[in-house]
Amino acid sequence: MKLAVVGFGNAGGKIADRIVEYETQTERSLCQFTAVVNSARIDLHKLGYVPQRHQILVGQTDERSKGHGAGADPDLGAELTRQDLAEVQRVLDNVPLHDVDAFLVVAGLGGGTGSGGGPVFAEALGERYGEPVYGLGVLPSGDEGGRASLNAARSIRSFVDSTDATIAFDNDAWREGTQSIESGYEQTNVEIAKRVVSLLAPGEYDGSPVSENAMDSSDVKRTLSVGGVATVAYAEASLEEETQRQRGLLGRLRNDGEAGEREGAATKVHGLVRRAARSRLTCPADITSAERALVVVSGPPAELSQKGLVRSRKWLESQIDSVEVLAGDDPRPGADRLRATVLLANATDVPRIDALQEQAVDAQENIDAQAAERDTAISELVTDPDDELEPI
Ligand SMILES: Nc1nc2c(ncn2[C@@H]2O[C@H](COP(=O)(O)OP(=O)(O)OP(=O)(O)O)[C@@H](O)[C@H]2O)c(=O)[nH]1
């Protein structure tokens, strides 16, 4: 698949940057165009891969932001984006539309710029272009508090409405107790990039052998066409000694279909896909609630068992009780590992989103109650006990 990726807000920008970095490191061909949009000038300095001419600052002339962000206010983030939409769209004139299969709008949903501006922008993309627009929305962790939950619970709804499908990533599920917040984010951003590239890059010619059963962009589009919230599973395994030995002996791997059909190879592929589906998803969900799924197994041709892929597909069909499961391979002769990525589309049983909504309703009630009490409290503070003094 060929993508135009737009990162919105701080998290969105950093993740878009990591996607391009991972794509470059793994010599893939995924992002035909990358841009970032932010309302905070300082965040744009953190980027190393998105070209400067594609870094757009919205709200520079707005009194409330002046280039310093949306202050975790998604309504402001949405407004700043609407005000400067023409400028954002001007940068999109550089998108090579003939070479782009879809747009991907990336944002953290707990703040203001990404959570409010992302859906506004996704909707504008959908109105202007015929290509599908996908979202990649990062849910805040539980300990970020009520405001972040409220923002995310509102934003995920707008994201799902304004995109063809939204892939969710849950910071809560990926938080490691021992890390600082920033190094934790760095690590999770790499994990997100790895999954996006492994899932969406296959099928694009980048010099690797083209397989009979290669995943294609139309497979991804078909899987995501059901809309809603999607989640991604991933697992990897080290290569067989035999594969490594052949590589050593021949200096390169044989593109050997027969080797790929060894019984052990089939069992390994099937086992890896099962392990992926049971591993930590980008956003934890009951996989049986997904409507469609897509499996990509990537690695040296000698380990890409077609039998294993067929078994994996059948197993997944039985798990999600759907015949809409596609499976394809992604031959990478130089790969150091065998990798399985599973896209689960329109998952409807996602406990984290239910929990966010509950937290958000509580937060909304607290915010309203506190606002009502605050006026009285200020008035009581500045008024003497018997209200004998006259203000000036
Ligand atoms: N995975 C991940 N999540 C992040 C990262 N940075 C921030 N977040 C999450 O994204 C949410 C939004 O934060 P930001 O992206 O900084 O906010 P913003 O969209 O720039 O909006 P404002 O700062 O309010 O203008 C936070 O609540 C975090 O949950 C990151 O690098 N990686």
TrEMBL record:
It is found in: Cytoplasm. Keywords: Cell cycle, Cell division, Cell shape, Cytoplasm, GTP-binding, Nucleotide-binding. Involved in cell shape control. Residues 368-392 are annotated as: Disordered. GO terms for cellular component: cell division site; cytoplasm; microtubule. GO terms for molecular function: GTP binding; GTPase activity. The gene is cetZ. It comes from the Archaea. Gene3D superfamilies: Tubulin/FtsZ, C-terminal domain, Tubulin/FtsZ, GTPase domain. GTP binds at residues 112-114, 144, 171, 189. It comes from Halobacterium jilantaiense. One of its GO terms (biological process) is microtubule-based process. InterPro entries: CetZ, CetZ_C, FtsZ/CetZ, Tubulin/FtsZ-like_C, Tubulin/FtsZ_GTPase_sf, Tubulin_CS, Tubulin_FtsZ_GTPase. Residues 383-392 have a biased composition (Acidic residues). This is Tubulin-like protein CetZ. Belongs to the CetZ family. Pfam families: CetZ_C, Tubulin. SMART domains: Tubulin.
